[in-house]
Specification:
Elements: E1 3-14, E2 18-30, E3 35-39, H1 46-53, E4 61-66, E5 69-70, E6 80-83, H2 95-105, H3 110-123, H4 139-151, E7 157-161, H5 169-184, E8 188-192, H6 196-202, E9 205-210, E10 213-219, H7 220-223, H8 230-246
Parallel strand pairs: 3-8, 3-9, 6-7, 7-8
Antiparallel strand pairs: 1-2, 1-4, 4-5, 9-10
Length: 247
């Protein structure tokens, strides 16, 4: 199993003694070759789960494994490609230089790396600006470069935090096509997004999180009623959960 989350809990301190729940008893398995959409309102805990997945922070209890290895195992790094919601780069470097750095860090050979750089920049419509400083790029171009960097070493598992953020319709289509290509190649894609139309068009399964608790996990068609779309079904399950908690 590419990603397995078992009994995961994380709390943040609120004041001297009180604690605020970020994640509580989360169990989730992401299958090989699937595109999994991670949904939830702001503050649901999605970013916390992603940070634990990447070993940026540690849980209070429970575990996460990637390809049966604990996430703090150094070997895990070679299997993962990661795109943060707001990627940041040294803006005096070019896209080509940034990707060369990423590829060399991943141990790629020079010839393979150069070919991979041109392939990704062409797919993401950045080839014509590959020698321009990143400070001249728009937000959408920086976002697409971030995806190229996440994919430079051809990882088996891609973790994407709001990959469509700041993209125009053309950019969203380019990124969507890359995600679908990854699925065809048997790669696993785990991504969070607030753009529900992208979830509908790309995902095999979805997980819905609210206030640290998993409300649903399964195929999209099992969640969306025929008479409603994903947005209506999503709003309904979140509002119902909040109503139950307030009673």
């Amino acid at each position: 199993m590419p990603i397995r989350i078992a009994n995961l809990s994380k709390y943040y301190r609120k004041g001297l003694k009180a604690k605020k729940r970020a994640i509580e008893d989360l169990n989730l398995e992401i299958k090989k070759g699937e595109v999994f959409g991670f949904l939830g309102p702001n503050g649901a805990g999605k970013s916390t789960v992603i940070k634990i997945l990447l070993d940026f922070i540690r849980p209070d209890s429970g575990s996460i494994t990637i390809k049966e290895l604990p996430v703090n195992e150094p070997k895990v790094r070679k299997y993962i490609g990661y795109l943060p919601e707001n990627p940041f780069f040294y803006d005096h470097l070019t896209a080509e230089e940034t990707l060369k750095f990423g590829g060399k860090t991943a141990g790629m050979e020079k010839g393979v790396l150069e070919e991979r750089i041109d392939q990704l920049l062409t797919c993401l419509n950045l080839f014509h600006v590959k020698k321009q400083p990143i400070r001249t790029y728009s937000k959408g171009m920086v976002q697409r470069l971030g995806l190229a960097l996440a994919l430079i070493h051809e990882p088996e598992i891609c973790i994407l935090d709001e990959p469509m953020s700041g993209l125009d319709p053309l950019g969203r289509r380019l990124v969507a096509d890359l995600i679908l290509d990854m699925r065809k190649m048997g790669k696993t894609v785990f991504f969070s997004s607030h753009i529900l139309s992208d979830i509908e068009s790309l995902c095999d399964r979805i997980g819905i999180l609210n206030e640290g608790k998993l409300l649903f996990c399964g195929p999209l068609e099992d969640f969306v009623e025929e008479s409603t779309g994903l947005e209506a079904a999503f709003i309904k399950i979140i509002e119902t959960d909040r109503k139950v908690k307030n009673e």
